[in-house]
Amino acid sequence: MKKANNEKIDKLNAQHQKEASIYDKDANWNIVGEMLTKKNLDNINTYLDKNKTFALDIATGTGRVAEIMKNKVKTVIGLDISIDMIKVAQEKGRIDIGVVASAGKTPFLDNSFDLLYCRSAYHYMSDKKTLKEWVRITKNNGWIIIEDSSYENDLLQEWYDKFISLIYLKGTKYLSHNTIIKMYKELGQNKTDFKIRKMQISLNEWLGRKQIGKKAEDKVKDFVENSPVPVKEQLNIQKRKDDYIFDCRWTTTRCLVTK
């Protein structure tokens, strides 16, 4: 098991090393992702204090979420397994402190943070053990916010998991917000909620950032082209020249930690 985890981290690091210098060019983030993150933080503005709040950005990448938090909190720490990503975040001044570590086993003390934010990365963990760790390091009445894709329809979820596995690591698993909330409850955390939004994405923009190679890109496009009719209809998949545009279900799952 330990070997498998290390192999997974090695593969992620190799991918992140390729992405680090171009990560910020992702139009899907620049147009939609930033707006959604700002909305999520605005919704908890009364809990944030520029003079007191300590925030942790899990899987910080190049620090885009951290940069939004930085104007609202006293200190923002960016955690990532990729030193290449952390370096970009530090060079751009988006994080106060960078930490290279696993999100499922952090080096922090109990009750360290008022806010823990994880955007578009929980699918790399997808387990209750990670949530337990996050609850441990978050203070009483602190927030844990997870942004990720979520589909309640089994057909769509199965399609999306296969689609993502062609681009990211094989076996990448997205959990529905209902599953995440259930795990929170099993950890004794009952103050949870969620909000689903739609965001339209360009497949070419996505593939351009991932740099998976022409052969792999063709395989992904063939998969999208031959999607089942119900999937095409529900995700509004449209072909535009050599690109595909479709809807992505984006869910914010929140937990107000109680200890």
Overall pLDDT, averaged? Answer: 86
Which fold name fills CATH's third level, the topology? Rossmann fold
Give the CATH class: Alpha Beta
CATH superfamily: Vaccinia Virus protein VP39
The proportion of strand residues reads 15-25%
Largest sheet: 8 strands, mixed
Number of domains: 1
Radius of gyration: 18 Å
What is the H-and-E element order? Answer: HHEHEHEEHEHHEHHHEE
Number of helices: 10
Query: What is the CATH-assigned architecture?
Result: 3-Layer(aba) Sandwich
For this entry, give a set of tags.
259 residues, alpha/beta, Rossmann fold, 8-stranded mixed β-sheet, 10 helices, 24% strand, disordered N terminus
Verbal overview:
The protein is built from 10 helices and 8 strands. It has helices spanning 2-19, 27-42, 64-70, 83-91, 128-137, 154-167, 177-186, 203-210, 214-225, 229-234; strands at residues 54-58, 75-80, 97-100, 113-119, 138-149, 192-202, 238-240, 243-256. Strands 1, 2, 3, 4, 5, 6, 7 and 8 form an 8-stranded mixed sheet that branches. Helix 2 (27-42) packs parallel to helix 3. The relative contact order is 0.14.
Short structural description:
Helix content is 42%, strand content 24%.
Secondary structure layout:
Blueprint: H1 2-19, H2 27-42, E1 54-58, H3 64-70, E2 75-80, H4 83-91, E3 97-100, E4 113-119, H5 128-137, E5 138-149, H6 154-167, H7 177-186, E6 192-202, H8 203-210, H9 214-225, H10 229-234, E7 238-240, E8 243-256
Parallel strand pairs: 1-2, 1-4, 2-3, 4-5
Antiparallel strand pairs: 5-8, 6-8, 7-8
Helix pairs in contact: 2-3
